[in-house]
UniProtKB/TrEMBL annotation, chain A:
Lineage of origin: Eukaryota, Viridiplantae, Streptophyta, Embryophyta, Tracheophyta
Main location, first listed in the record: endoplasmic reticulum
Assembly and oligomerization: Part of the multisubunit transport protein particle (TRAPP) complex.
Gene Ontology CC: endoplasmic reticulum; Golgi apparatus; TRAPP complex
SMART domains, alphabetized: Sybindin
Protein name, as recorded: Trafficking protein particle complex subunit
Keyword Endoplasmic reticulum annotated: yes
Annotated keywords: Endoplasmic reticulum, ER-Golgi transport, Golgi apparatus, Transport
Family annotation (InterPro entries): Longin-like_dom_sf (IPR011012), Sedlin (IPR006722), TRAPPC (IPR007233), TRAPPC2L (IPR044760)
Residue stretches spanning the membrane: none
A single GO BP: endoplasmic reticulum to Golgi vesicle-mediated transport
TrEMBL record, chain B:
Top-level taxonomic group: Eukaryota
Positions of the Trafficking protein particle complex subunit domain: 266-534
Name assigned to this protein: Trafficking protein particle complex subunit 11 domain-containing protein
A Pfam family annotated for this UniProt entry: Foie-gras_1
Amino acid sequence: MIVCVAVVGHQNNPLYIQSFTEADDALKLHHIVHCSLDVVDERVNNPKKSGPTLNETFLGLLYPTENYKVYGYLTNTKVKFILVTTDLDVRDVDVRNFFRRFHAAYVDAVSNPFHVPGKKITSRTFAERVSNIVKSFGLSST
Amino acid sequence: MEEYPEELRTPPVTLISLVGCPELHALISSHLHSEQPPINTLALPDFSKISVIFSDKSSDGKAASASDPSSPTPGILKRDWLLKHRTKVPAVLAALFNSEQISGDPAQWIQVCTDLENLRNVIRPKNIKLVVVVVVPATFFASSNDDLISEDRMAALRKRAELDAKHIVFFNSGDELQLKESLNKLGSTFAELATTYYREEGRRIKTRVEKKNFSSIELNIRNCFKVAVHAEFRRDWVEALRFYEDAYHLLRQMVSTSTRLPVIQRLVEIKIVAEQLHFKISTLLLHGGKIADAIAWFRKHNASYRNLVGPPGVVFMHWEWMSRQFLVFAELLETSSKAIQSISGPASNTAEKLTEWEFQPAYYYQLAANYLKEKRNALELAQQSEEAAGGIDGSAESVAPSVYVGQFSRLLEQENVLAMQPLTDEEYTRYSIAEGKRFQDSFEIIALLKKSHESFSGIKAKRMGSLCAFQMAKEYYTVADFTNAKQLLDDVASLYRSEGWVTLLWEALGYVRECARRAGMVKEFVEYSLEMAALPVSSDTSVQSFDSKDCGPAGPPSLAQRENIHKEVFSLVSGEVGSVSIGDNLDLQTACNGPLHLEIDLVSPLRVVLLASVAFHEQIIKPGVPALITVSLLSQLPMNVDIDQLELQFNQSECNFIIMNSQRPASTDGRQGRRVERAPSLSLVTHKWLRLTYEVQSELSGKLECIYVVAKMRSLLTICCRAESPASMDDLPLWRFEDRVQTFPTKDPALAFSGQKAAQVEEADPQVDLVLGATGPALVEECFLVPVTVTSKGHSVFSGELKVNLVDVKGGGLFSPREVEPLSSDSSHHVQLLGVSSTDTEDDPQVASSKIMKIQQSFGLVSVPFLKDGESWSCKLEIKWNRPKPIMLFVSLGYFPDVNELSSQKVHVHKSLQIEGKTGIVISHQFMLPFHQYPLLLSKQSPSLPMNEASVLVVSTKNCSEVPLELQSMSIDMDDDHERLYTLQHGGGGAEDMLGISHLMPGAEFRKVFTIVPEVESSSLVLGSVALRWRRKSETQEACVLTKYKLPDVNIELPPLVVRQECPPYAILGDPFAYVLRIKNQTKLLQEVKFSLGDAQSFVLAGSHTDSTFILPKSEHVVSYKIVPLCSGMQQLPRVTVTSVRYSAAFQPSVAASTVFVFPSKPHFQIAAAADAENKELEPVATE
């Protein structure tokens, strides 16, 4: 189950962060998302280590915490998407698929003429769409 | 890792035992220890000790083997088994005998045999290998050891010891070489036998494992462990690893099957054994450089045990165990990564799922800390329930670790005999809780986090690092170490602040605020509180659910919470005692009695609390004229804030003023002499600019800048806010990411983009006219006068100073005073300021005497006398141009309008004027020969003049300027050091050089003809220079300008021949006339001359066409032709050519000179004919 998704701007500031848990641990998830930016930085600055994925937007598993897995995605405008899930057995295909749909939703949201680039995303439509994507995570491929 | 026993932490080392010949033990053992791989030595001084050391072991071993195989095995691993094999059970026993003992008398030999027998009895059940070492005396120098002991004895010895020959070693310490050889031999024999021993032992147990010849799974695990240890002894890491892993897997299966012990203790035992096995496996993997494998293994280990939490009462034990796993692995990883520099990256195949952090010990340290925290929480719960259940009895004290790893039992002391009694789970739990109390987990957690923090900071993972720091700070907070906590939290908060993570910042600030509160730091408390209240915490709290417990002391981030904080801090600063829910800390309340002063600068996080923007409406303001200034204040505090008074502070302190809130009672302290304005309301509404526009007036010229805006709120709080210009104002750091309407600090958006907090105050307007009265261009050489007039129109002029500067328009040579070098000649200055002449000096001699003048080539400083209102003063600048050049003349007048120079400001008037410098007069000259006279000049040098012959010099002057000029005189003057060596005649009669006054209009030309008769022969005769006196034509009689023009030096020579051509000025058709050539020989030589005459159509002539003749020295030859013209008009005379043979020079008159006008009939002009004869000699060339 996805517990948190986040959009992080290119100054590493949160643009959108939403948790989907009942357990009231949103703050912990914020910390996890924030710390995962270190790995994103590391991957972006040392692309050699991450192997052949030079122009790959999908950054893969960023770091495993005890109970969560954190995945990352970097758009060409240096906006980062972070996904935190509690599923310990996640298929890469599902995550890639999720990020692709999430990216599309993000692009639609920032294409809104009333959205100011670099500001937080407050669109309700975007939030709804994200929650749909989150709900359907892992279902489409099964 | 340190809490593990030594034998577990280090790889096992082969153990051998030495017995007999104690004097050699030290030598041998140190040698063996330095072997590669090292061998440890158990040295026994003599044979009697053998049985003592081995006896209890053997009995113990018997007891173990004698135990009923059907009864359940009481434990998995024995605690001291490993230690025993490392320190007490040797692989090889070496019996050292002196050679005398063997070869000596029968009594000695029998002793040897007895010893050997005893030894063999002792070691046989354990399969320990035996080596007999025969020590050869140092004095023995034999080529072969065979000579020492007889063959029979050796054979007997072999038989007695049941040994091969190679296991009887001779030890010869005779000399160094032999000693070394012997030691090496011993070493290799021991190593070989030890390997054999461990292999056999291992194989023996392995067959047991393979045949499944055991009664319980515990024994199976134990055997696997033993096989692995034996494999380790002989450095077979692969096998060791395999069997450790087997043991580990078997153990994991036991979790669900075993029923041997009570539940809690069973789990504890399994976990501790698993921990040891895991430790061994990890160590082996890491030492083999397989870091990725080790990490993967750890992950598996972690995954398979993480959920084995156990019964609720003892959860803390599980967390402690987990924490230890992470800590140990972190330490292992740290030590091994130090040894292996190049960590294989996550690129390897097995590690495709491994991430960067998993290679960092810091990651494990952090998790170890987290689990330890879990442990602490669980332990606290357990303790509480324990206390509720009825306290802890003293029985826990006698609990001790039992024989088996991971088991505990009660130690009963009965009649000096220690007995172990199994524990019940309740007893064990009590014991563990009591044990757990002894540790201070917080410090442990802080130490772990500190390690992690440093390590993460080292690899530039600042966010992970700051998370660790945050957790550390929380620990410090729980143990009430507020100084450390605050220090850490400040750093953490600054990271969150810079990256705009508001929720995290909220949490951090919540902690640090509480730290400040508890530590009684009022100022900090207010600052943190204000910052928190102004944070852009999302107002829609419904979206995010925050657990209030997790959020720290500040509670969940929400608008309501912000408002609470706001209220709290403002009631604190307003000094309303009792209304603040400070809680139990009264220090803060009492400490808050004094006034509180906060400063907000451009980088302060408190900018969100109060942002002051100040804009002058005009960039340039006049002194003494009121200018508008707008002060805009913005606050993000959640509730309205009323400001009591606002003070604006400028760099010119007399401009400072205070804005009072008229709704508040005015207090009049400390503002004597200040301007006070009143505003109807000074209420700051959230995210709305409070704009105030006032007038400000400055008397001083220069920069006027608003520096601070000081807001006084309530009775105690003063916020001093650095003023910012709207044009260069940064966004509020945290609010800039918020999606909200952009607002401007001023109503006028243009001012919001361009407004500045500083303005330039101009000088007072000068009320003095400065007029530069020059007209037209200046002429080169003349002394050009520029009249300067200072006229006072309202201001009196005190201490006036006139600065004059000449500047090249093109910027080529700046005539600044700096460039005036003493060595440079006048020629470097094309334009010079000669002087200043005052016209008023006669009127007021006193003023004139006091005036200071400083004149340099291009710079002048003139003092202006005191002028009353309406008076004027003027002077004239004298400027001379040496070259034609345009220049810029800058004149600036500085003066004080007031007699008191200190109180008033200097006023400046600047004027500039571009003046062209032009050449007024151009002089040229031309040399000519007399009419129809041609001297033969031999030299090629030009100009050359014939000696003693009259030559004509024409000097012409042209007026190039645009103004009419007057010429005074023109003459040819000799320079001082030259003598005139020629006769000079002026054309137009003998009047010396005075022309009278001749007017020369612009563009007109004036010529004067001189006749020069050189008197000496010279290659360079100095002619002197033309001196022309002229001036502008004007009413005022200006001084004449003398322009000199240097005539070139000429070459004077005596011509050998002079040809003179004579022909009438005109001819009449059909009327014959004479055409004569006179050739004069001036030499003392006979000259041969040839001449020829060409035909001409228009004339008929008489005379020889060609001829040659000789001319006598100093005589003249005349060639004469009679010519009759046949046509009228301008006609070309027949061309005559004269050739001097001696000089190879030919002469032919030019076409112009041999042209004559033929009238058709005789004209009637008698006067002309008369004049014609007269002017033959000196005809003006100009008419030609």
